[in-house]
Amino acid sequence: MDWSDTPEQASFREEVRSFIKTRLPERYQAAADGATNDAEALVGGWQADRKSDDEERRGVALTWADALAERGWIAPHWPKEYGGAGLSVIEQFIYNQEMSESGAPAVGGMGVSLLGPTLIVHGNEEQKKEHLSKVLSGEVAWAQGYSEPGAGSDLAGLQTRAERDGDDYIVNGQKTWTSGAQYADWLFALVRTDPDAPKHRGISFLMMDISTPGITVNPLTDMGWNEPFNETFFEDVRVPAQNLVGEENRGWYIGMTLLDFERSGIGGAIEYRRSLERLTDYMEQDDGSGTIRNDWQRASRLEIADLHIGIEILFNFAFRIVSMQNAGDIPNYEASMNKLYGSELHQQLARGGTKALGLYGQLWERDVAPMNAGFVRDYIGSIPHTIFSGSSEIQRNVIATRGLGLPRG
């Protein structure tokens, strides 16, 4: 299989590389290279910077957003008529690959990947005019209100209610695992507007200004003492009915909408390769004898070799998916294979890196631990990766039934 670029693809790749080299702010480059102990740069990234009390951090975030916006690269997969770059599937793949190679942060988050594509398909012209441009400028960030305490994998069982009252909906209920809500300006949510309808048919899709009275966002601390997600409460929140996207009670189908754009997962494969390369570089530092530094690192060589092979396999999963999309096919069980393999490989990499550092792998403070304590922190942070975005159990069921044609149990 030949994954070489055509002359046109090679030219575009060089354009992206040159852009990143000249326009990526030093703050983000240092975080990507592991050359900083700044926890906010390493964890929160662009999303946290844009809401920071530090004027300099806000300026860096704005500078990077403006640079991407000049080329429509905040939303490279959106059609040009809506302010995107209208890149082909292969161009998107190359763009994502080069951004990941450099560690450059994406801008726009869920506004770009989820809300924007949904509005482009289902929103009215007023909604598109009001919201799409603010996503593309980096002015407004969005969070997703889907999961609830009793409705995670069974999302259609959600119970947050929205009752029509004149020109408004009154929303009551709770969402959880609301990623990035503490940095967001707006929230899009699935809410139940007909409690008597079958589960999938009584749901509507609403957009809400997160500063609306009655909305409370409480950050949740994970096992690594980070706050990547939140619980969000709604108490008699009045949402204008004009913020309903599509038809009332048809929100389930609207919420599942995404434009057909490149979702190969190449970013994860590149991130893992960068981590493994940093680990091997560290282990090969000369201790004066010209050999690998210590016994436990020598014992880790075979495990590291296995990880290297695993990462190359993940690369080829990504190439397979983008090739299918470029041919007009829609990956199904292939995407489940990619997610299953990638999330479990991530955990193996985090464990292997922590083990390779021996006793030093237990140090948590970035300023005293090898490699900024990256592997031990990733060891903790990788635990939910086989749960979110579809658990490994669900992915195996999809592969069994849709890929292997096995009967449902």
Could you characterize the architecture of this molecule?
This protein is α+β, with helices and mostly antiparallel strands and 409 residues long. The chain folds into 3 domains: 7-107, Butyryl-Coa Dehydrogenase, subunit A, domain 1 (Orthogonal Bundle), CATH 1.10.540; 142-255, Butyryl-CoA Dehydrogenase, subunit A, domain 2 (Beta Barrel); 266-403, Butyryl-CoA Dehydrogenase, subunit A, domain 3, CATH 1.20.140. The chain is 46% helix and 13% strand. The chain has helices at residues 7-23, 26-32, 39-43, 45-49, 55-70, 89-102, 109-122, 125-136, 251-255, 266-283, 295-299, 301-326, 333-356, 374-381, 392-403; strands spanning 142-145, 161-165, 168-176, 186-192, 203-209, 215-220, 229-240, 244-245. A hairpin with an 8-residue loop joins strand 6 (215-220) and strand 7 (229-240). The radius of gyration is 22 Å and the shape is globular.
Record the SSE blueprint.
Elements: H1 7-23, H2 26-32, H3 39-43, H4 45-49, H5 55-70, H6 89-102, H7 109-122, H8 125-136, E1 142-145, E2 161-165, E3 168-176, E4 186-192, E5 203-209, E6 215-220, E7 229-240, E8 244-245, H9 251-255, H10 266-283, H11 295-299, H12 301-326, H13 333-356, H14 374-381, H15 392-403
Parallel strand pairs: 1-4
Antiparallel strand pairs: 2-3, 3-7, 4-5, 5-8, 6-7
Helix pairs in contact: 1-6, 6-10, 7-8, 10-12, 10-13, 12-13, 13-14, 13-15
- The helix/strand series, from N terminus to C terminus, equals HHHHHHHHEEEEEEEEHHHHHHH
Q: What is the gyration radius calculated from CA atoms?
A: 22 Å
| Spatial arrangement of strands, main beta sheet | 1-4-5-8
CATH architecture of the largest domain: Up-down Bundle
Task: Please name the CATH topology of the largest domain.
Answer: Butyryl-CoA Dehydrogenase, subunit A, domain 3
Instruction: Report the sheet-strand fraction.
Output: 5-15%
In CATH terms, the superfamily of the largest domain is Butyryl-CoA Dehydrogenase, subunit A, domain 3
Number of helices: 15
As residue ranges, the low-confidence spans are none
Helix content: 40-55%
Mean pLDDT: 89
Give me the count of strands.
8
